[in-house]
């Protein structure tokens, strides 16, 4: 059974790496034949060949099952011709709204479309909407605030799910697909927005309204408290009030998993309720005769876990925990001892049957790995020791197992881990799980303010302790290859074998490749230029054999989010860039300089060049030049005189950079416009000739004059643009001017890599990482 479940899981995971789904005839054939074949193979499992065939059949069944559910979900899509059109819809706010400055974001279940247009009637059922209230007065905004379970009529504009596509980056499209959200959009300002019903009664909507009331009660008791958002997250799973600085502290100390409703908290609640009901049940002879106390405790614990999971919004990580507990509870109720490995694998099977996209989540791998390691570490300890020394030893062994065991996955998925994580978790786990979380949950049930006061006081003390630990550095390194990660996982198993097992130190040797895998770098004389997909903005990473340069830092998305922290810094860390030899901020516009603060905080920077007088460093001036590892860099614009004259636009001060090796060159033009192009043509036409061009100003109609395009003569042209951006970049007439070049767009191609080597090659991330759910 164990091998067959693992084979099924491998099949499910394999499908999630495919560019397209298998044909329906093949899927149906496997779904019909495999269940008929497996019992026959199972009766003859002693024969090795048939055992292999059985595992292969289970793997094919996993592929077919995942393909069946994926095909059904793909049918619920937004017709392409409806993107960007005004549509009037009626539906229900299906989940707890997430509020931000001057607006809110919420999931919306469409009930009807008020249109006679046939394609409009085929809108996806579940969509994600943003509603920007703008600079209206507070009274007007309060009247339009949406609440969970309300029915509304909106005029909306929708687009297909789309996210930034970068190596080692967060796959927003996969996240939406797993949640069943098949379109995103926004409520049109100054259009129809009408609340039709205050409350739509269904079990799911009632839970969401309850969660919203609990959140309001938390904020009412502690309106200005710095950590009330964490308490709300522990009670109802709503993390929107946790600040970016608090998340940074949690990552720095390795306790992020504790600051939301995690599997540990659900299990803790189930255990507490089981122990309480079991103790009370034994006091009644009549109840004991009706149902044995152990079974009553199991049922109470499982019901408590269900209730807590619903209160948490039944998020995917919580679902996985509940499914795992359900398997264990069913086994205990039946009186059968399935064993740790069977229980874990049956939970894995249940998760993948209900949610085959769970394998796309890092939390899936980390949660199952952590539980498996705990089972493995517990089973390898020989003998039963008692006393406080033994308890401390078991606790230390548990911390050691989880810390070392999850290390390879953390390096592969996040390229970092906290050196102080064992110490931080040693205190944070018991304090949060057995004191703070129960107090927050108890307040959600019995809204007595002193419960919240005590919980916040304990949390404040814990945060002070974590702040001290956060001064220690994180271990950061390039992402190791999958092969090195698998070898490291084998090393973990070897290292955690029972004491006395010979040569356990070999496990540490198997960990070393993942810990010290060198980053891939260009050869001397070569350069890699990566145009990252940051939406409507620009961020370009240039690497040579021993140096790295960042050209712009991407846009500012919101008051607490920018491309620097979300895309640029993670990409630099994953590719092994731990310092910048040069940072160029081309001009003031927020779509180019929005992430500069995050980059400056994360990395040491040897040299900064910009056209911003307020930014410390040098001004970029035409004529500046340097050479790194056989690759030449030259600044072509602006001139020194341009700083003395007031430019008409900040775009006119954009720093233009030329990167050249023996084979050819790349011209990075930022947001220069027609007047700047003419100045470059008059001043240095020979330096403009390049094989690869970053199209000026994202392909705006104010740039890319015919004379400039002809002077550059690029074979490859890259347009860094956001998907369906409001500026409609690149303009069709501008794209037409580059008809002789091969054209790339970051919105449709994702991150684009240019390799200046013996030959010049250009490749796109979406083409290399194509998945079936991408529109």
Detailed description of the structure:
This protein has 775 residues and is an alpha+beta fold. It has five domains: 2-75; 80-200, Nucleic acid-binding proteins (OB fold (Dihydrolipoamide Acetyltransferase, E2P)), CATH 2.40.50.140; 202-254 and 423-477, no CATH class; 264-380, no CATH class; 527-768, 4-Layer Sandwich (Metallo-beta-lactamase, Chain A), CATH 3.60.15. It is built from 29 helices and 26 strands. The strands form five sheets. It has an eight-stranded mixed β-sheet with strand order 17-16-15-12-11-10-25-26. Strand 11 and strand 12 form a beta hairpin. Helix 18 (482-495) packs antiparallel against helix 19. The mean pLDDT is 88.
Whole-number average pLDDT? 88
Q: Structural class, judged by helices and strands? A: alpha+beta
Query: How can the largest sheet be summarized?
Result: 8 strands, mixed
* Bulk shape: globular
Percent in helix: 40-55%
Residue fraction in strands: 15-25%
CATH architecture of the largest domain: 4-Layer Sandwich
Strand order of the largest sheet: 17-16-15-12-11-10-25-26
Q: Count every helix, treating DSSP H or I runs of 4 or more residues as helices.
A: 29
